[in-house]
């Protein structure tokens, strides 16, 4: 094994530790206000790419999926091209309230155990 390869592996291991422990370094989701763990980051086009949008915003995967479950691309482009506009929608406000009580890495797998209680 070459020295360069060992070095790269050590760097990768160090980086993995940083990603799992340095939660305070995680970007904040503009929708729900919680930090976004590395494995939950999704780029959302504020105006969908199909509507000519270029600006993206990093959100939780679960927040991102919720937006696309609620709105069509045409609606996003026409009525909700900003985070502020999205937050004013009652269904989005309800979702934010709900998801804010969850840990930052929350995704479907936790929903399953909650249902069993
Ligand atoms: Zn999106
Ligand atoms: Zn979020």
Describe the structure in your own words.
With 117 residues, the protein is mostly helical. Helix 2 packs antiparallel against helix 5 (90-99). It has 6 helices and 2 strands. The chain has one domain (26-116): Orthogonal Bundle (DNA Binding (I), subunit A), CATH 1.10.30. It has helices spanning 3-21, 61-70, 73-79, 83-88, 90-99, 108-116, and strands at 41-45, 56-60. It is globular and about 55 Å long. The protein has a two-stranded antiparallel sheet with strand order 1-2. The structure holds zinc ion (2 copies). One zinc ion (ZN) is lined by residues 29, 31-32, 34, 59-60, 63. One zinc ion is lined by residues 44-45, 64, 68.
Mean pLDDT: 83
| The level-1 CATH class | Mainly Alpha
Q: What is the overall silhouette?
A: globular
Q: What is the fold named in CATH at topology level? A: DNA Binding (I), subunit A
Question: Architecture, CATH level 2?
Answer: Orthogonal Bundle
| Largest sheet geometry | 2 strands, antiparallel
Kindly provide the radius of gyration, computed on alpha-carbon positions and rounded to a whole number of angstroms: 18 Å
Look at the helices and sheets and give the structural class: mainly alpha
- Please give the count of helices: 6
In total, the number of domains comes to 1
SSE map:
Blueprint: H1 3-21, E1 41-45, E2 56-60, H2 61-70, H3 73-79, H4 83-88, H5 90-99, H6 108-116
Antiparallel strand pairs: 1-2
Bound molecules: zinc ion (ZN) (2 copies).
The site of one zinc ion has 4 residues, from β1 and α2.
């Amino acid at each position: 094994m070459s020295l360069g390869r060992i070095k790269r592996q050590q760097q990768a291991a160090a980086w993995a530790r940083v990603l799992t422990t340095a939660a305070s370094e995680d970007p904040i989701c503009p929708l729900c206000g919680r930090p976004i763990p590395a494995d939950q980051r999704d780029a959302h086009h504020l105006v969908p790419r199909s509507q000519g949008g270029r600006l993206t915003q990093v959100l939780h995967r679960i927040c991102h999926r919720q937006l696309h479950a609620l709105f069509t691309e045409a609606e996003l482009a026409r009525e909700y091209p900003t985070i502020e506009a999205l937050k004013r929608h009652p269904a989005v406000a309800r979702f934010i309230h709900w998801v804010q009580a969850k840990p930052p890495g929350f995704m479907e797998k936790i929903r399953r155990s909650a249902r069993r209680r």
